[in-house]
Amino acid sequence: MKLGAYIAYAKKTFLGKSAYRFDHLMSILSTVLQFFIFYEIYRALYGTGSSVDGVTMSMVTTNFVLSLGLSAIFTPNDYFLPGRIWDGSISTELLRPMSFKGRMIAENVGESFFNLIFKFVPVLLIAIFTTGMEKPAGVGNMILFIFSAVLGYGVLFSISFLVQMTAFWLINIWSLITIKDVFVNVLSGKMIPLWFMPVWMTGFLKFTPFESIYFTPVQIYLGQLGAKEMLFKCLVQIIWIVVIYFLGNVLWNKGQKKLVVQGG
Prior knowledge:
The chain is an all-alpha fold.
C-alpha cells in the first residue's frame, strides 16, 4: 500500500477535526484553565521564595506549559480498535487492502497535527506573554526537544496500542484505559513535576516509560542534561517504543486468531 493512502487518512482526520469549531475552542479554554489553575497553586506555594530545592517557579511554569501543551497534542485514540470490535466493523476493517495498524497511526498523526497548530500554539503564546516561562537553553536544545517530544508521543502511542490490543480478550477495556491515564498523568510529570517526587519514586520511574513521555523533553528544553545524557535519554525513549510496540504486536497477532465479534 502506497504511503499516499495513509497521508490521505491523516489529512481526512485533520479536516474532520476542524469541522467542530466550538469543541475546538472549548478544548483550548480547558487547557488554558488547567495551566492557570496549576500556575496559581504553585505560585501560592512558592510565595515570596525564589526556589524550592533548586527548582525555580519559572522552571515549574515551563514544565506545566510544555507538559500540558504536549498532552494537548498527544491524543491517541484509545478506542480505535475496541470500538471496532464492539460494533463488529473490525471484520471488514481487516479485509481492507491496507494495514489496520498503519491506518491507526495515520489518523492519530492527523489529529496530532491539528492539535499542534490549533491547541498547542495558542496555549504556548498565551503562556509566553502572561507568565515567566523560560526560553530554551539553546538552539541545539530546542531541536533535540522537538525530536524528544516526537519520541515521547511514540512512547505514549505505543502504550495506548498495547492497552488496546487487550480488547481482543477483554472486549470492554474502559477500566484499563482509565488506569493507564492515571499512571501517565501522575508519573509522567504532567500534573506534578518529577522534581518534587520522593527520591525512591524518581529512582523507580527510571525503569518505567512514563518519564520518557513529557519529562525527558522538558529536561532537554531547560538544559538540565549534558550532551551525552540527552542522547542517552532519547535512546531510552526509542527502546521503550520498540519494546512496548513489540509486545502490542505480539498481542495483535494472537488476538486476530481469537477474535470474537460483538454485534455487526
